[in-house]
């Protein structure tokens, strides 16, 4: 469960405070439906709209496209203070050799009194995954390429998504650089993501750089040889 406080996008919009559980939904060929519970912990009514999107990653960026393969019920509803709503999510997408990813966008709809200039008060993007057929495999490979900025290529050769957090490099001169996390730590199955690393001087091909991070299985520590 996660408790979320979301401020309005303009001065007249109220803040909202509610809980969502779970924050990641995992389905499979044998479990094609699941539920998410939303609780309004605030002192005012909230109206929410839920929509499903197919989630891809292209050129290291998330690409969301509306889909009918994930059915959400109810898609629009209101919650009084202290009230809760159970959302039923059903997948029509057959599972495949790789995990399939969706995003469910949860938008708070402003009241008419808050004015037509507000599109949405806030948005939450929740992952929904359809497990791959067969045994789950998690595998990340790393390539660090020379240049300024240097480039870390993270290739997910497994059949499920992987998370990479707190990425840092210790350069040959001993200086430590933290890699900007961005808004999304996931690398989806079969995808290669690229992270740009700003250094004072270009990394030389053939030099050794120590990489540390936190992955799904715990701490990661490895030495990379800088590629051309």
Automatic annotation (TrEMBL):
Cellular component GO terms held in the UniProt record: outer membrane-bounded periplasmic space
PANTHER family linked: PILUS ASSEMBLY CHAPERONE (PTHR30251), SLR1668 PROTEIN (PTHR30251:SF4)
Coiled coil residues, start to end: none
Every Pili assembly chaperone N-terminal domain range: 19-130
GO terms of biological process kind: cell wall organization
Protein name: Molecular chaperone
SUPFAM superfamilies in UniProt: PapD-like
